[in-house]
Amino acid sequence: MKSTKLALLFGLTALVPTLSQAGTLEDVAKKGVLSCGVSTGIPGFSAADSKGVWKGLDVDFCRAVSTAVFGDANKVKYIPLTAKERFTALQSGEIDLLSRATTWTATRDTSLGLNFAGVNYYDGQGFLVSNKLGVTSAKELDGATFCIQAGTTTELNLTDYFKSNGMEYKAVTYDTSGQTIDGFKNGRCDAVTSDASQLYGLKLKMDDPSSVTVLPEIISKEPLGPVVRQGDDAWFNVVRWSLFAVLEAEELGVSSSNATAMLKSENPGIKRLLGTSGTIGENLGLKSDWAYQIIKQVGNYKEMFDVNVGKDSPVKIDRGLNKLWNQGGLMYPMPVR
Amino acid sequence: MKNKQVSSNNVGLLNNPLYRSIFFQVLALAIVLFLAFYFTNNMFNNIAASNITTGFGFLDNIAGFGISQTLIEYSDGTSTFGDVFIVGLLNTLLVSILGIIFASIIGLLIGVGRLSDNYLVSRLSLIYIETFRNIPILLQILFWYNVVLAALPSPRQSFNYLDSIFLNNRGLLLPEPIFEAGSSAILISFILAVAGVIYLKRWAKKRHDDTGEEFPIVKVSIAILILAPTLVYFVSGQPVTAEYPVLKGFNFKGGLTIVPELLALLFALSIYTATYIAEAVRAGIESVPKGQKEAAKSLGLKDHVILSKVVLPQALRVIIPPVINQFLNLTKNSSLATAIGYPELVTLFSGTTLNQVGQAIEIILMTMAVYLVISIVISLILNWVNAKMAIKGR
């Protein structure tokens, strides 16, 4: 009797998970699948289509990282998370990578035990109003009621904006972006406020998209990017350089259609990127053709952008700040050399 | 432990039942304590190793987000996460207390109606119970929320009563009383009136016991309760004024606003919980022996007197224990408000605050502690009521 109980006790002790501080890359490789945290449905960024296939800019980034690790873009397990759940899911190890339109802020970077690996979309907070309201500027929204999604930087920015403009507002806070737009449809609020990119997607969810307008004002900086756990530099590097690789590919003019032909290119920059020279892949703990596979299977940043949120998508968002640095935008990949 | 005689016999220590039972209980306790310590310790080590901030210091940080319904003074620029906690707690208590009151009233009426001799009333009560008891509460909350929002007009087309009460999809707007100097006299007069009514009731009961004469206690009490404060209000120079809601821009300003989220949640919780209370009431009434009713009837008592003086006092002993459970359930179900954005504790604290701060363990622990305390308090109060009832009945 006694010995069984003791045996049970030691058995349990052995089962207690101890924190694996480093080694996400090895863990992912061993699991054979990348657990990627995405949204519960933000059109253009991460949303499941009618066949249940995940599509979007953030989804493509998950695919890019999966390609870097496995050489296969489809070894991703998508975990849909609300804004409220996302950080806990990453902290607890439920997901390996958070790619869910998440704003990089000082508080999140320093107090949550997380690191932002870069920026894959420069956004800003805007307002979506009904045309019936007759409002053309956010400055006319004094006294308005807003529908907001809980657990976002949006809630804080709204307060700051109205305070600094000496205006008053009321906020109704919902759990998901679906509930938020439903509240707006039902007339619970005068306006929806969120990242401008999401507003264009939400506009499409309205019964009559032409009955609503996105106001011109952008009231905040919202650099959105992928997030990983703090303290695992190898994994951090893989994620960060997967992002730089797709940007560098656009800058060098390498795309999914010409990547194979480019393997014979004599351009030293392209050779380093595609792994035909240098040891960048090995340094990252990946295969030497990691970036070639990403570009071949997922595409460069321009391809990702255009098909998901840009000119070839229903949302049709202008590249704006998300152009490359040499075309007047902010996207500046660190040199791949 | 259970058998002292055996332990005094001369058996070996290993085979001594008393010793053995104590030994294994101590061993079990030690294992539980060790595991608790081990997991807690492991948790703190893991948190520290993942660079997540710990402790309750965040409660003093500025929250910086707006809340649609606050019972205390709350400013999104200066109030802290500690204030957010209190705002959420009060909103939870508000909807729970109102819900308990409404659910009890509806439940009592439906439960009595279920046993009515009137075919229509008893069938309708049955349909009510079977319908609302068998639909999940979350769906009912979402249903009422969408019905409330869809049925109500926009602020500019509000339903309007005397330009002072408005109903629209932003909520129910009421004039807000503003208490000026001297208004405390009204409160004091009201308290005195209540005391007077209690005294009057005792006097009337004594007179009834002594002489058998009836006194119209209900009518007189209502008159006293209304007349006394009204009189003082006019004598003291009308110290209470009202601030009326006014349509300004595209929303109302001023006045008291009852948000649609509260209305919908209250509706759903009261209607749902009332079905269970109604069944408890029915069970209680049916538990009173038929002879009690027949005896009362043969004394010539009227039906409503039989119900209130003979049946219910005995039935309450059976009714109260299951109803305590329902009150607890209602309080805990109020956390489902997070689906419709009513700013109660779970929405505000383990929702928004958790996301802004990121300290899941502290925040969830605080939230759980709140529900634990509320539930324990409710059951202590009702157990006390139950104990009083039980003794009286014998």
Please sum up the structure shown.
The complex is a heterodimer of chains A (337) and B (394). Chain A has 14 helices and 13 strands.
What does this structure look like?
The complex is a heterodimer of chains A (337) and B (394). With 337 residues, chain A is α/β, with parallel strands linked by helices. Chain A folds into 2 domains: 20-122 and 223-324, Periplasmic binding protein-like II (D-Maltodextrin-Binding Protein, domain 2, 3-Layer(aba) Sandwich); 126-220, Periplasmic binding protein-like II (D-Maltodextrin-Binding Protein, domain 2), CATH 3.40.190.10. Helices cover 39% and strands 18% of the residues of chain A. Chain A contains 14 helices and 13 strands. Mean pLDDT of chain A is 89; it is low at 1-21. Chain B has 394 residues and is of the alpha+beta class. Among the domains of chain B are: 4-49; 81-143 and 261-393, MetI-like fold (Orthogonal Bundle), CATH 1.10.3720. Chain B has helices spanning 4-8, 17-49, 81-114, 119-133, 137-151, 184-211, 217-235, 260-287, 290-298, 303-333, 345-357, 360-393; strands at residues 159-161, 165-168, 171-174, 176-179, 240-243, 246-248, 251-253, 256-258. Chain B starts with a helix and ends with a helix. The model of chain B has no long low-confidence stretch (mean pLDDT 86).
What topology does this entry show?
The complex is a heterodimer of chains A (337) and B (394).
Chain A: H1 2-15, H2 24-31, E1 34-38, E2 47-48, E3 54-55, H3 57-70, E4 76-80, H4 86-91, E5 97-103, H5 106-111, E6 114-116, E7 121-123, E8 125-130, E9 144-149, H6 153-164, E10 169-174, H7 177-185, E11 191-195, H8 196-205, E12 212-214, E13 222-229, H9 233-252, H10 259-262, H11 268-274, H12 280-283, H13 290-297, H14 301-308
Parallel strand pairs in A: 1-4, 1-5, 9-10, 9-11
Antiparallel strand pairs in A: 2-3, 5-13, 6-13, 7-13, 8-11, 8-12
Helix pairs in contact in A: 3-9, 3-13
Chain B: H1 4-8, H2 17-49, H3 81-114, H4 119-133, H5 137-151, E1 159-161, E2 165-168, E3 171-174, E4 176-179, H6 184-211, H7 217-235, E5 240-243, E6 246-248, E7 251-253, E8 256-258, H8 260-287, H9 290-298, H10 303-333, H11 345-357, H12 360-393
Antiparallel strand pairs in B: 1-2, 2-3, 3-8, 4-5, 6-7
Helix pairs in contact in B: 3-4, 3-8, 3-11, 4-8, 5-8, 6-7, 8-10, 9-10, 10-12, 11-12
